[in-house]
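Hello,

I think I submitted the D-xylitol-5-phosphate job twice by accident. Can you confirm which output corresponds to this input? Input:
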Amino acid sequence: MIAPSILSADFARLADEARAVDGADWLHVDVMDGHFVPNLTLGLPVVKSLLDSTDIPVDCHLMIDDPDRWAIGYAEAGAHNVTVHVEAALEPVKLAANLRAAGAKAGLSVKPNTPLEPYLDLLRHYDTLLVMSVEPGFGGQSFIPEVLEKVRTARRLVDSGELRVLVEIDGGINAETIEQAAEAGVDMFVAGSAIYAADDPARAMEALRASAVRAAGKGGDKER
Ligand code: DX5
Ligand code: ZN
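Support: Only one job matched these inputs. Its output is below.
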């Protein structure tokens, strides 16, 4: 599944940019606060407007401090999945329960240098694991292949029934990198610049999807 990231879209034309990727599985929206990451994007009012103007399920990636306080608003507004960072959440179990009670899926994200092992129990309370494959903050960075070890671990645990999360990857996903991520076992691929910098975003998205499907077939034979 593919989640185009509107971080690389034209922020003055967000409704049109959502329409340009009609057929996307999720629409990935990066909320940055200028504190947790050194960049500032958009917040709840813009997400509410976007929710009113698209039928694509909205995937909010909150790169913010104090998600315990702010994340619930995105779930209440109707976001399909709300992901918070494990490095920022103070009471992540309670936070996940609140997100689910508000009708959203709860997502937990780990930065590239954050290990997964200490949080495996915590993940039982979550629906989505978002593995960052670049340092969060900016689009257009290079993919960090070392994070695929975390994807493989999560994939194994999901396939053996020990965990029930959707495995999502975010950062540097393009025609070259998507295959290795798919072979490692990613379910949902976020792609910003690879989709929105293309002349035809919908076509770029479908090309990525096709590569992922092909590679997942190969990975399945080898590893699963
Ligand atoms: C980065 C964001 C990503 C960003 C990815 O902090 O979380 O969602 O849009 O952009 P690309 O696909 O260009 O690396
Ligand atoms: Zn993101």
